[in-house]
Amino acid sequence: MFLCQVQQEIFANGSNPDKGQTGTEWLPINDLLKYPLFPHALRAYLISYFNSGKAPTYVGDIN
């Protein structure tokens, strides 16, 4: 995963989606625990980073 910002207001399947990609969806960061994002442990790290700017840079094998 990468931290990035979208330059345009319209965001679809990207300019060159891979053939296994079924779509994209914006999710509210603070509600990530309600969604099946894998690996599950990553959800808490993303929420922590969004809210405080702090999270580990390497979490190891969390599958």
Question: What distance separates the N and C termini?
Answer: 15 Å
The mean pLDDT is 78
The chain-level structural class is mainly alpha
The secondary-structure element order is H
Note the overall shape.
Answer: globular
Tell me the Rg in angstroms.
13 Å
User: How many helix segments?
Assistant: 1
Number of strands: 0
Major β-sheet annotation: none
| Low-confidence runs | none
Structure, briefly:
This protein is an all-alpha fold. The chain has one helix spanning 40-52.
Any overview of this molecule?
The structure is a single chain. The chain is an all-alpha fold and 63 residues long. 21% of the residues lie in helices and 0% in strands. The chain contains one helix and no strands. It is globular. The model has no long low-confidence stretch (mean pLDDT 78).
Secondary-structure blueprint of this entry?
Blueprint: H1 40-52
List the keywords.
single chain, 63 residues, 1 helix
